[in-house]
Write a structure and sequence with these properties.
Number of helices: 6
Number of strands: 43
Helix content: under 10%
Structural class: mainly beta
CATH architecture of the largest domain: 5 Propeller
Length: 698
């Protein structure tokens, strides 16, 4: 090929005036070394000429690697960084080395180019006895709120707040993690769907002002002509994600939109669709968007209330109304988080009656953040008063509620008091999947901000609750939300048919029936029906020990009679059932059903310390929550109690009262504890039927 004379001349002059250094372009590589099966990691390469041609290759084709970003660190200089993402499948053999080769093309001004080989060694995936068997948990790193739940072409997409390279939520940049499933039971991890550069790699204040995190949000599908227009510009189907863009350096939260043309696998660069007001509101976040009569409706958390917006195109939004949730707003809480607005048919209505349900979470500033409060310049606060105010947030806990009412397209009019979505200690920030015709499926983060940073699992922290089908029923003039484990869980039951334990018409005394004394499983699903007619009116209980064993860990599920046809269901992680001591302080909450009970022995020492090696220096948080919820016995003579009990390796979910009462809780039992014990006190009862499907080996 003939080279133009003028190009050669310019190149010769450039070399004479700006001779290229004799050294390689690459100065520093961060992120090499050991990497675990199933881990996703970022590797950063820093050096000169990073804005020029760059390539990266893996010596093993099974290792996923891609270039995430390439930018200069400061204006007017060629010094910069590239960020790579490496994904190691779970089935890659352990103790295997592979190399990543990064090449930088030479350029006339700054460097001769160069290459660097990064060696990584695949380590065995750390096996944990608490790794959930049928709940989703990331293979590596931190997880909290589920985001962007959407069903696309036969696939359920789960996005979630994620820090893939750390188990701690300690101010690092949040990403949107991503997993997919065909049946809501078996999940496959994907690469992060949304991310932003890490702040510690951007030294200038101008760069740091551009650092943001995709906070919580939702996703919808757009098809037809609308998918071919802005903001999608897709040939067929578009997945539009609407989320809160949080820019911490300037304390700003706005709503942004990112579109995907490949079914939600990855998203284009986002654009602003709903900016914050001036002066900006501090809690302006968590948009949930849904289609309503040819328009788009957004329900947004704004301080102590939820605001409703409408749009014709997902880009321009108009405020419709607001729903007051709390009477006043303080710096430490409570405030509204992760709202959702759902229309549900009334199951036992003779007409086609529907009602709307507003769900939301009670937000507060977690105590773990109180010591890290900073001023507007980013410096730690010296005034102790803000920290003292923050510490008052200990009176709150992570819980979610629902309100039944009417929605006319502009306003939501409440018709009930707030009621807990889940009476357990570990259920927060729930969201429903969009684009699921004929059903509404909900799932939440199974954790609690009061001790989320102390949960002893590794190499991950955080998991998703069991997805639940939502319903609505009317009873005694009141509408009740119902939750039922998704029927897709039958695939697990079917796999356990050869080992099912069945009891029918079995007397229940103060001793566990002989048929259960040999039951051993770390994860199982149980249907239980008990006739409590033989229990006395006072001081009588049904107690069920779930993996309690002889060492004191585990969970105790109890139903205590409080009247002729009334009872109180509780789920307790307490050593009192194993001869230990615990004090219970009952604190009724005004306006809510049930009682929230504080206990001194939750996930803290010595329970956690005795279960987790290397975790003995953790500072226990003494505030945990046990819950008691009214559950009425029904059926003949108002004496029939029905329970659905799902036990995974580190969690329990109990469904009662035809789905009106749900209790979810984490626990971390000894791996050897595999028992299911049940007995009665204060009289005799009868097991009408009990079917237990073990999902793990005896």
């Amino acid at each position: 090929m003939k080279v133009p004379t003028v190009s050669v001349l310019y190149a010769t002059v450039a070399l004479l005036i700006f001779p290229a250094p004799a050294r390689s372009a690459i100065e520093k590589v961060v992120g090499g070394g050991s990497i675990h099966q199933g881990e996703t990691r970022r590797i950063t390469v820093i050096g000169d000429g990073m804005d020029f041609a760059t390539s990266v290759a893996s010596s093993d084709a099974r290792i996923g690697v891609r270039l995430l970003s390439k930018k200069g660190l400061a204006q007017g200089r060629a010094k910069g960084q590239i960020v790579l993402e490496v994904a190691v499948p779970v089935d890659i053999p352990k103790n295997q080395d592979f190399n990543l080769t990064v090449k930088i093309a030479p350029n006339l001004y700054y460097s001769t180019g160069g290459s660097e080989t990064v060696r990584l060694n695949v380590q065995e995936y750390p096996n944990s006895s608490w790794r959930p068997l049928f709940h989703f948990a990331p293979s590596w790193g931190w997880m909290n709120d589920p985001n962007g739940l959407v069903y696309v072409n036969g696939t359920y997409h789960l996005y979630y707040q994620a820090i893939p390279f750390s188990r701690d939520h300690n101010g690092q940049q949040i990403n949107w993690g991503h997993a997919v499933s065909k049946d809501l039971v078996h999940w496959s991890g994907r690469r992060d769907a949304m991310f932003s550069p890490s702040m510690d790699l951007l030294p200038s204040s101008d760069d740091q002002n551009q650092v943001w995190s995709p906070f919580s949000g939702s996703a919808v599908t757009v098809s037809g002509e609308a998918a071919r227009q802005f903001p999608c510009v897709c040939s067929n189907l578009c997945v539009a994600s609407i989320f809160t863009k949080n820019t911490p350096a300037i304390a700003l939260q706005d709503q942004w939109l990112a579109a995907s043309c490949n079914g939600g696998e990855s998203f284009k660069a986002p654009e602003s669709v709903l900016p914050n007001v001036t002066p900006p509101k501090p809690d302006f976040r968590d948009p949930k968007v849904f289609s309503y009569k040819g328009r788009w409706i957004m329900v947004l958390a704004v301080g102590d209330k939820a605001e409703l917006y409408e749009s014709a195109n997902l880009r321009q939004w108009k405020l419709l109304s607001s729903v007051e949730i709390y009477s006043s707003l303080t710096t430490n809480g409570p405030f509204v988080e992760t709202p959702d607005l759902i229309e549900l048919p009334v199951s036992n209505s003779r007409t086609n009656e529907t009602k709307w349900v507003l769900t939301y979470s009670e937000g507060f500033l977690p105590p773990v953040l109180c010591q890290g409060l900073r001023d507007s310049t980013g410096m730690p606060l010296t005034d102790p008063k803000p920290k003292q105010e923050c510490e008052r947030s200990r009176k709150f806990t992570s819980r979610s509620f629902y309100i039944v009412g009417e929605f006319d397209g502009k306003q939501f009019k409440p018709e009930s008091q707030p009621r807990p979505l889940d009476f357990g200690s570990d259920f927060f920030a729930p969201q429903t999947w969009s684009n699921t015709p004929g059903r509404r499926i909900l799932a939440g983060w199974q954790n609690n901000w009061h001790y989320a940073h102390q949960v002893p699992t590794t190499p991950w922290r955080g998991q998703l609750s069991i997805p639940r089908d939502l319903g609505l029923m009317r009873d005694d003039g009141t509408y009740w939300l119902t939750q039922t484990p998704v029927p897709e869980l039958a695939v697990l039951r079917n796999s356990a048919l050869g080992r099912v334990t069945r009891l029918r018409d079995k007397p229940l005394t103060n001793r566990t029936p002989m048929e259960l004394q040999n039951f051993r499983s770390t994860a199982f699903d149980a249907d239980l029906v008990i006739d409590v007619a033989g229990l006395s009116k006072v001081n009588s209980e049904i107690k069920i020990h779930l993996r309690s064993g002889n060492t004191g860990q585990g969970m105790v599920l109890a139903w205590r009679r409080t009247g002729s046809d009334k009872g109180e269901l509780s789920l307790t992680r307490s050593a009192s059932e194993a001869g230990g001591a615990t004090s219970e302080l009952i604190k009724p909450e005004s306006g809510f059903i049930g009682q929230w009970v504080s206990a001194s022995l939750p996930l803290a020492a010595p329970t956690m310390q005795g279960l987790s090696s290397g975790f003995r220096k953790a500072q226990p948080n003494e505030r945990s929550y046990i819950t008691r919820v009214p559950v009425v016995a029904r059926g003949t003579n108002n004496s029939i109690l029905k329970l659905r009990i799902l036990v995974d390796r580190s969690s329990v979910e109990v469904f009662a009262g035809d789905g009106r009462a749900v209790l979810s809780s984490l626990f971390f039992p000894n791996p050897s504890n595999k028992e299911f014990k049940i007995y009665a006190t204060g009289g005799n009862a009868k097991i009408v039927s009990l079917v237990i499907y073990p999902f793990s080996d005896y």
